[in-house]
Automatic annotation (TrEMBL):
GO terms, biological process: fatty acid beta-oxidation
GO terms assigned for molecular function: (3S)-3-hydroxyacyl-CoA dehydrogenase (NAD+) activity; delta(3)-delta(2)-enoyl-CoA isomerase activity; enoyl-CoA hydratase activity; NAD+ binding
Organism lineage string: Eukaryota, Metazoa, Chordata, Craniata, Vertebrata
Protein name listed in UniProt: Peroxisomal bifunctional enzyme
GO CC term (a single one): peroxisome
Organism: Poecilia mexicana
Length: 718
């Protein structure tokens, strides 16, 4: 709601009250409308200040209301009421003015911001556009190019930048509400004719068409199928080409188009999912609200290869003292240089404070004796990791957390090498670790709740989104990747090409198709794992070469590795590159010939495979594994899986994540298609719908937020 008070006799103050971010719920909108009428009717009141409680102006429309029937006064008449007021209205912007919150501020006649406030139109990230006049007022106020930038990217700007752009009139380091009251008193009685943004003509730069053309190209390049960014461009276009009232009509049409789209629903689901994962729980009952994290001041990283370097940078940038240990001298000196470079680039590009002095390098593991937490990032080799954990357990001070960055090895086996297995937990970062936002926190059966809480909190402090997951081969992300990759290989055997499979996945919205990703991360990585699993056998022909442990197996990846085709690093993989380390993938005629020969050798007849089949087999196999993960209690809920896939594996955010997507497709349809493919490929167990998926489908495709009820029942019967 909104509170009304009188300040210094003549200023009516409207304070938005809706914790935690003073979102514009029905009650708040009603309050603003009522209090505006009151302020306008009181003759003693000469001006009005609008502010938010608890140092936050307003976080925009209340997203929690989006799913329900609209009640209360709509936003657009509310902002018109404010702008049309006969008394000056001043917005006192503290903390945030986002989305509808900034639209509210733009309807005021003046804006005073605190220097620490941030402003922006993040609607695009929710699959929407600013729908309360933002797309019509902002270009009138700051010009078309700047408005396009803010509205299509959703980026937040600081108060200083907002001042420079002309969004706010004054920035203060002092109390912004007091400053706004003073300001309101100073403008009492002044004409408001020049202060109503909707009456401004929209600037028309001479190269207008080129500006819009460039903006459209830009959003097409980065949107990966998301419709909101392009629609935002169209709405701003209306501000330039139509009078204000018509522009508002166009904004409304475009807003409702987006609002009712599946993409907006998916993005709004994802918004809450990303916040829900911080309220973690484990299969054995530990929870976020009953587990206290331990204090960590000093951390260590063991192994300064690709991952260790990024983790070191991330820790130092988050303000931790870091001991960085690498036993190979050459690696150590290369790592020092690389880490310095990353820190400098971070400082230059993102304004992160330089943190060289936070890091102490060492070539001896003895240097970690006094740290609170260690992150091990040596080669993915169980024997080596076991030795390192034995050493750490002997060297580290009592109570120090021992974490591993393994991509999928058994956390419990590592824990069993230590004197305190309850202190062992996985912290699985993603490459490049100083950039990627995802952290899988992997708890073993013996990890203590405090240790899980500490790792989750460390991730947050490092700017990551931490997701707690159980211990199993590949955890959540890499475990689901396996059946997805397998299907991609099988499709090549049956007649597809890497470029066809990748094109389908990229059209779906993945940043990169499965084969390009494999070329980027190196085919040898999976090859090593398959070798250590005893899956790679000497080349042979006939069906037996394609069966391992009674299931279908494709040796295609192994055969490429035997020929030295490791992907980008060798200039050849599933695609060809102009040189080793090249980045532009081109179809490789050699590979096409190789596939033909392979099929002939194995008696396989190539067939035409349509896009639908590529998509369904790759995605539904991955999704099915996701349901198995839920059934096994490895992930607590579908949100955990979806956040992992969006942040770690390039799943298109506007499709919500694999579990949300399955719900959108219809769980019964997913079951039906999996059964269809399983009949054709009975030797692929991953195509057999798991029992949780079947159960949910049979219970009428319930909404995703109801899945937990069904998931928890079978588990409690165990
Ligand atoms: N509506 C409802 N709830 C909101 C909300 C909103 N607009 N913004 C944030 N919240 C909730 C979050 O869900 C979270 O709830 P929880 O504690 O129960 O999980 C709580 O507020 C705190 O949010 P964060 O954990 O994200 O806190 P931070 O301090 O990290 O970030 C923030 C605060 C920058 C405001 C961030 O929450 C944010 O970006 N919110 C979304 C803002 C937004 O997109 N506004 C536009 C809405 S659409 C709109 O206005 C349409 C209009 O143009 C017509
Ligand atoms: P890497 O091969 O780049 O680096 C490993 C480093 O560890 C090397 O510099 C090596 O000299 C050093 N090392 C080996 N034994 C050591 C010891 N006893 N003490 C100190 N240093 C030692 O490996 P990368 O890619 O950084 O992987 C590290 C770990 O992270 C592995 O477990 C891997 O599975 C995991 N991981 C890798 C990802 C990737 O994309 N590369 C992603 C996520 C996890």
């Amino acid at each position: 709601m909104a509170l009304y008070s009188r300040v210094s006799g003549s200023v009516g103050m409207i304070t938005l009250q809706n914790p935690p971010v003073n979102a514009l719920s029905a009650a708040v909108r009603q309050g603003i409308v009522d209090m505006m009428h009151r302020a306008l009717s009181e003759p003693e009141v000469k001006s009005v200040v609008i502010c938010g409680q608890n140092g936050k102006f307003c976080g925009g429309a209340d997203i929690r209301e989006f799913g329900a029937k609209m009640t209360g006064p709509p936003l657009v008449p509310m902002v018109h009421l404010i702008e049309a007021a006969s008394k000056p209205v001043v917005a006192a912007i503290e903390g945030i003015a986002l989305g509808g919150g900034l639209e509210l501020a733009l309807s005021c006649h003046y804006r005073i911001a605190h220097s620490k406030a941030t402003l922006g139109f993040p609607e695009v990230a929710l699959g929407l556009l600013p729908g309360a006049g933002g797309t019509q007022r902002l270009p009138r106020l700051i010009g078309v190019p700047a408005a396009l930038d803010l509205i299509t990217t959703g980026r937040h700007v600081t108060a200083a930048e907002a001042r420079q752009l002309g969004i706010v009139d004054e920035v203060t380091d002092l109390n912004a509400v007091d400053a706004a009251v003073k300001f309101a008193q100073s403008v009492t009685g002044k004409s408001l004719d020049a202060r109503r943004i909707s009456t401004y003509p929209c600037p028309r730069p001479p190269d207008l068409d080129a500006i819009f053309e460039r903006a459209m190209q830009q959003v097409r390049r980065s949107a990966r199928g998301a419709i909101a960014p392009g629609t935002c461009v169209q709405a701003v276009h209306a501000a330039v080409t139509l009078p204000y009232a018509k522009g508002m009509e166009r904004e409304r049409e475009l807003f409702s188009l987006l609002f009712t789209s599946g993409q907006a629903r998916a993005l709004q689901y994802y918004f809450f999912a990303q916040r829900a994962v911080s309220r973690w729980s484990t299969a054995n009952g530990a929870r976020w609200d009953t587990s206290k994290p331990r204090p960590v001041r000093k951390a260590a990283v063991i192994g300064l290869g690709t991952m260790g370097r990024g983790i070191t940078v991330s820790l130092a940038q988050a303000g931790f003292s870091v001991v960085a240990v690498e036993t190979q001298e050459q690696q150590l000196s290369e790592a020092k240089q690389a880490v310095s470079g990353m820190l400098e680039r971070g400082a230059k590009r993102r304004g992160v404070p330089l943190a060289h002095d936070k890091i102490k390098y060492s070539c001896s593991v003895q240097a970690v004796a006094d740290v609170d937490l260690v992150i091990e990032a040596v080669f993915e080799d169980m024997a080596l990791k076991k030795t390192v954990f034995q050493q750490l357990s002997a060297i580290c001070k009592p109570g120090a957390l021992l974490c591993t960055n393994t991509s999928g090895l058994d956390i419990d086996e590592l824990a069993s090498q230590t004197q305190s297995p309850e202190l062992v937990v996985g912290m699985h970062f993603f490459a490049p670790a100083h950039v990627m936002q995802l952290l899988e926190v992997v708890y073993g059966p013996r990890s203590s709740p405090e240790v899980v809480a500490t790792a989750m909190q460390m991730g947050k402090k490092m700017g990551k989104v931490s997701v707690a997951v159980g211990n199993c081969r590949g955890f959540v992300g890499n475990r689901m990747l396996k059946p997805y990759l397998e299907q991609a290989f099988f499709l090549l055997e049956e007649g597809a090409t890497p470029e066809q499979v990748d094109q389908v996945l990229e059209e779906f919205g993945f940043a990169m198709g499965v084969f390009k990703v494999s070329d980027l991360s190196g085919l040898d990585v999976g090859w090593k794992v398959r070798k250590s699993d005893g899956l790679v056998s000497p080349a042979s022909t006939g069906t037996s070469a394609r069966i391992r442990g009674g299931s279908r197996y494709s040796p295609l990846g192994d055969l490429l590795c035997e020929r030295g085709r490791f992907g980008q690093k060798t200039g050849r993989g599933w695609f060809q590159y102009d040189k080793p380390g090249g980045r532009v993938a081109k179809p490789d005629p050699w590979l096409h010939g190789f596939l033909e020969e392979y099929r002939a050798q194995h008696g396989l007849v190539a067939r035409r495979i349509d896009h639908q089949e590529v998509l369904e087999r790759c995605l539904y196999a991955l999704i099915n594994e996701g349901f198995q993960i839920l059934q096994d209690g490895i992930a607590a809920g579908p949100e955990d899986i979806d956040v992992i896939y969006v942040l770690g594996y390039g799943w298109p955010r506007h499709r919500g994540g694999p579990m949300f997507y399955a719900g959108q497709v219809g769980l019964d349809k997913v079951v039906e298609r999996l059964e269809h493919y399983q009949q054709i490929h009975p030797d692929v167990p991953g195509l057999q719908p798991c029992s949780l998926l079947r159960k949910l489908a049979a219970s009428g495709n319930p909404a995703i937020h109801k899945w937990r009820e069904v998931i928890q029942k079978p588990r409690s019967q165990l």
